[in-house]
Amino acid sequence: MLIKNLIPFLEEHKNEIKIHFARGSKAPEDALNAFFAGEFQEWQANQSQKNFERNYILSLIRLGHSQWLFGGIYKSNGCTSTDNYRYHYDTELMDVGSEYIGKIVIKYRREFRQSYCCLENYLDSFIVIDDSYKAPVYQQKKEKHMTNGLNLGLTKIGDLLLESKITYDEQGRTVEGIDLRIPEYQRPYKWTAKNANQLLDDIIEAMNANKEVYRVGTLILHKDAECYKIVDGQQRTITFSLLLKALLPEAYIPFLDQKLTDNPYNLRNVINNYRALQRRLDPLKDREYERELRELINYVKDRCELIVVITNDLSEAFQFFDSQNARGKALYPHDLLKAYHLREMRSLDVQSTEQIVKMWEDLDQKKLAVMFNDYLYRLKEWINGERSYELNEHNIDMFKGVTAKDNYPYAQYYKGAFAYADELNRSQVPFVTGVQDLNAFQLNAPIIAGKPFFEYAKHYFDILADIQNNDKYEGCFINGNEIVKTLDLREYKNGVGNGITRLMFDTAILLYVDRFCPGRPTKTDLEYLDQFVDYAFIWAYSMRAQYKNVGWLVAQNYILGTGKKDGVVNSFNIFKEIAGSDAPRNLINKLSDLIVPLDYYKLPANKENIDVKGNDGVYQNYLHFFAEKKYLENKK
Fold this sequence. Notes:
alpha+beta, globular, about 625 residues
C-alpha cells in the first residue's frame, strides 16, 4: 500500500510539501536517536540552509537500508536566522497522519545524497511495508531528565533468546552476554493462549506475505552489574521463548531457566500457552510438512526483530517506559480497526481505497469513537447477555469480522448474503422495479472485513445521528417526538446517571431501527417505531426513576435483569428481546407484557412539576409521560 492511500492529505497537498529524509550529518542514526528521545521536532527545526521553503514538511527518519520511519507532517511557519549562519524553523506538528507516527515504515531506495526533496516527484514511490512497527510513541516536549545514556539497537529473536546477544546496536556492533532477567517489580505474565496464538498467526501472515522483516515491538532493558532486566516487553519476550521451545524442543533457551514469581497468572499462563503453541505446531512435525516447519523456524529466528533500548539508569528506563506508554498519542480502538481493515483492502484499486479513506476521515472522529465504544460495542455484549466494560485493543476482535480467506460455512453464508445485497444495490434493479435497497448490515451479525467495514461504520453513524436528532423535518426516524423534547432538556442531559440512561434509550432504538425499519420507512413502519419508542422510554427511565444515583454497576444489573432481586421493576434485557423477535408486532406484544407501572409514592425521583410545560411548550419532568402512558400508579 502506498502511504498516500493511508494519508490522502499528502496527495492533496503534494505540491506544497517538502520531504525531509532525516538521518544526521555526523552519524546516520542521529535523527532516530532524537526521535526516541522525544527531541525530533527541535532537532529538525535547526538547519544550515533554508531547506523547508514550502508550507509543509513530511519527515521520514532513517531506520536502515531503504527503510524510513514515518515521523509526522509538520506545518512550516517560516524561519529566522541564528548565529553561525544557521536557520531555525518555527514548525507545528499537524494532527493529520499523527496516528501513524512511529508506527509505519516506508520502503524507498534513495539513490542520491539530497535530504530535502519536493514530494510530488516521489510520492508514488513511498510504499508502506510495515504497519506493525512499535517504536516508542512520539513526544512533542523534550523530557528534562532524558540523557544520552540510552543505547539503541535491533535484535533478531533467535540471537536474543538462543544466542544471548543483541544483533547490533546503533554503532552496528553485536552486544554479547545478554543475560535477560524479569525483575520482581514486573507485573505477572498475563498473556493468554489467545494472545500467543494471535502472535503466531501474525508471524505466519507476515511470512506468507514475504515480509523481509517483521518487527514485533520494543524491548526496554535496564543494565545493572549482573544482568539485563526487562522494564518493558516481558509479555512478548516470554511468549517468543515459549514459541521457540515449541518449535525447537531440544534447544536451550537460557531465559526460561529463571524462576518466575509465585503468581496464579504465571503458574497458569506459562504452561497453558506453551501447550497451546505445541498443539498448533505438532501437525507440522510430520515428515510431509518438514519444509514448512523449517521455514517457520528460520523466520521466527532470523526475520522477527525487536527494537532494543538499553540504559544503565533505572529511573531513566522507567521514564522512557512512561513516555512510551502514557504520554504518547494513543490509538483509539476505531483507529486500530481502521488500520486492520485497510490491510484487508490490498486488492482494491488506489482510487477506491482513497474514496473509502476520505469517507472515513470526513466523519467526526470523536463521534465515531463514541459510536464504537458506547453504542456498537455495548450492544453486542448486551445482546449476548454479557456485561459491557470498555472497547480496547484486547476485545476489538468482534469488529474484525469475516475475511476473504475465511472459508467456513458460516463465513460463506455471511459473505454470500453481503455480496448479493451489494450486487443488487449497485445494479439498476431497485431503480427499475421501485424495490428498496437491500440492507447489507445487521448489528448482531458478523462484519465483512475490508471495504464493507467502512460502509458498515458510515451506515450506523448516519442512523445514530438520525435517532439523536429530534428535528421535525430532518431524518426518517425520530421527528419532533414529545418525549425526546423533554429528554433533550439540559436538566436531563447533565450528570452520569442521566447520560447512562439516555444511552440505554438511544441504543435500544438503534437496535430496533436496525432490525425492523427499512431505509425508507412506510407509515406502518413509523407507527410501530413510535410505539416502540414509548416502551423503550418507559423501560430505560424506569431505572432512572427508581434509583437516586445511577452508575454503570446499577445500569448493567438493570439491563441484565438482576435488578429484580432488589425489588426494582422493569429490569430485563430489552436488547435480547429485540434481537430475538421476528416482527415488530410480536416485540410490542412482548414488551406490553413485560413492562409494568411504577408506584408513584415509592419513587425517589423528583416529582415536582410533572404536568408543567416550559415557555417552549415542553414538559419539564419526564414522569409526565409515565402518567400519560398509564405507567404511573397512585398519582393523584
